[in-house]
Amino acid sequence: MLNWPGQPYPLGATFNGSGTNFALFSEVAERVELCLFDDDGSETRVEVTQTTAHVWHTYLPDVQPGQRYGYRVHGPYDPANGHRCNPAKLLLDPYAKAIDGEVSADPSLYSYTPAQPGVVDDAAHLNTDDSAGATMKSVVVNPFFDWGHDRPPGHEYHELVIYEAHVRGLTMTHPLVPEHLRGTYAALGHPAIVSYLKDLGVTAVELMPVHQFVNDTHLQDRGLSNYWGYNTIGFLAPHGAYAAGGTRGQQVQEFKAMVKTLHEADIEVILDVVYNHTAEGNHLGPTLSFRGLDNRAYYRLVDDDLAHYFDTTGTGNSLLMRSPHVLQLIMDSLRYWVTEMHVDGFRFDLAATLARQFHEVDRLSAFFDIVQQDPVISQVKLIAEPWDLGSGGYQVGGFPPLWTEWNGRYRDTVRDFWRGEPATVPELASRLTGSSDLYEGGGRTPSASINFVTAHDGFTLRDLVVYEKKRNEANGEDNRDGESHNRSWNCGVEGPTDDPQINALRARQQRNMLATLLLSQGVPMIAHGDEIGRTQGGNNNGYCQDNPTTWMDWDLDDDSRELLAFTQHLIRLRHDHPVLRRSKFFTGAPTQEGGLRDVAWFDTSGDEMNAEDWDADYARTLMVFLNGEAITEPDVYGERIVDDSFLVLFNGHHEDVEFTVPARTYGERWSMIACTDPEVPVDDADGILTAGEKISVTARSVLVLGRPPLEPGTPPVTEVR
Questions:
Q1: Other CB atoms within 10 Å distance of the CB of residue 618
Q2: Residue 217: its pLDDT value, please?
Q3: Is it the case that residue 293 has pLDDT exceeding 90?
Q4: Which listed residue, of 16, 547, 634, 661, carries a Cα 20 to 30 Å from 53's Cα?
Q5: Active site (annotated) includes residue 360
Q6: Which of 43, 33, 40, 36 is nearest to 20 (CA)?
């Protein structure tokens, strides 16, 4: 086969229209073979002889898109010194842009052959069985795609309503999606799904992992699979099983078409990415790619025991974040997904691990420095899951200014308030107003807080009000897996019931938490299906359930339709009113002389809350005034923003509570805009309240009142103190 020297950059396989350049980093390699595979599985090996700064490279003028390939690296197998090269193992290209096939449970994938229990890393027991027939293959892809006039929607953070979704879970049972497309990128871009998302009102989808991942063999042995996908092996490759059109590069084209369609609907695409570990596991794991290429360059090893991996992720390994080659791989991957695949941002799984150059989490680590100065990545959405499993890993509020964070304290506070925990009112007030206690000190804004009540990990919103105990038996781990402290409340009966009062309360509690979420400053994130009451039957760890347990049930009953309509109404309300999604924190002060403060808090008598009110452990009520005429930040044209003002009444008591509308200083007439009790009239003549009027607010409910701004020329009313 014709074989030219090629170039060391870019890394990976790059088709230029006539042939393909191959470039692979390995400092430890002594020889590298490029292996090409025909459709019948026959293998052709090409010796790669050119090296530049530890990059092995060659150019094959006859290789076209669709060609499957892999590498064999000859070098030391010396686990005690951190080296695990084994040319019998076919290795994936870390920069592969498409991957074909699956990993089997074949013993040939492992570089050791235990002669007896406990003997696994001894070089004398090296496994020399060829793994090519049991592993995935990298694929050369065609980079050309007609993007037309595609452009990123470019929503500001405070304009986002994020919808966390799973490619399969969202689309597998939709009746309008053709059966052969369900569970694929094509399904997510299907008009039925896009129309649903548009009608719901979300402005971004946050896709659970779509990087190529490995289906764990121990799950397959139990008849299960890795549904969530937090087990990446290909950081530039879209997961092949989510493609309807094939896995010889078609997955790349299909993913791009999906993004283009969502962009046309003004919906951004954010990827949940896993750069903290790989699918190769610990020292007992398979040799699939990085381990056999250059183990010490990619993985963090135990300092005084290089045969074992340092693990802050709970998966068996952690990538070496102080390695320039790991940092280059991550940044090249991120740039590729933005520039070539047109995604709009990333949510970083266990992001605290990315900040561990050594042992401690360091917000000044090299990774954050590189992101800060990168002209591409610094301009997209950056969302951190701000914790990992290592010491000091809980870092909510600790990320640099460019970053936003999943606010775990928001989730816990909202759940605690609505299940009746004491002393939650002050904390709830902080979470409602953007968590300034966590983010303002770092020069950040309310948008740094990604607010959520539920996510893929844990109970669904419906299960949060139906179960207090997890039901994970189907996972095959004797119900030991998953979180046991869920901050949930079953409303009086564990599991489903026919009791109409309990079911009404459960429906109201779901609306309460959705209303709280969508009325809070910051960025709301809804887990897919929560808007229709999706249940997992109490399973709070659906990572291995690729079946109706985790899929959306599109056969909606009346309760589901009512919850969906309520969610749509609240999202529209948020979209229409800037005061509900401010880009700066409240100050608690007037913005003009004689004006009202931008936010004010009241007790049930309509009087402003004092220190004693805030300190009352027994308090379960809160009334907040949001001043739409005190928004200091201008619009995109530099014009002053004037909005309606709102009173939001929260009753967390188990009984109805009488509230008094505050004095006319804050508004003469108020309209009922929304209520989590469906029996309360809103948007009609019976839903008008006047200053000083008393109103009974249903037990465990939220009531939203609104008034228009003062007419132009009307003098402001001096605030009563």
A1: 8
A2: 85
A3: yes
A4: 16
A5: no
A6: 36
